[in-house]
Hints:
7 helices, single chain, two-stranded parallel ribbon, binds zinc ion, TIM Barrel, Glyco_hydro/deAcase_b/a-brl, alpha/beta, 10 strands
Amino acid sequence: MDSVYKTAPTTTQISIPVLNYHSVTVQPGNTAAITPAKLEEQMQYLADQGYKTLTLKEFIDIWEGGEKPTAKVVLLTFDDGYKDNYTAALPILAKHNFRATLFISPGMVEDGYFLNWEEIKEMHKGGWDIQPHGMTHPNLTKLNAEKQTFEITEARRQIEEELGITADVYCYPFGERNQTTLHILKEHGFRYAFTIEQGMAKPDQNPLLIRRLFVNGEAGLSSFKSLLK
Ligand SMILES: [Zn+2]
């Protein structure tokens, strides 16, 4: 009976699941770690359901274009830059020709536990977007403006220098930020930033406070399916 009224603009209907992964390994008891077998099962599910995995540019184009995508879309994000993202996640995603975004802290690169630049470059060639997650994975709210600025801009500078890309999309370590952080991001031309607040990404959100969906590595496939709804 509402059909005589104008429908809401398409923008309000755009809702993109941004999945948030971390380590891809066998580590019982750690909900932030998912086993390679489970990740494979989830990627197979996405493929079977006809999902398109977005590049960051495609995600931003949808966000800015205001057109609801005709296909099912998802943005896969991996935080922190664990070595297993290269050894385990990269080949699993490559099997499906899937794209993903990796948020790294360059201060942890080359320490032997996290990805090194050679691996990061290979992932970039394999279709992964690489963006900053602070230099040393800091809780920014514990730092003064000067230190926050360094953590944010130096991470960006190193990624841009190593990969020859623009790295103006931030991801808050621990999801933590304050007004100073938002001010610094704006001042330095960051266009988007991802939080750990739970929910679908929708263009009516502040682009510096985009929501994501935490993938609980201990949960089963049915819980994964319900995340996407
Ligand atoms: Zn992190």
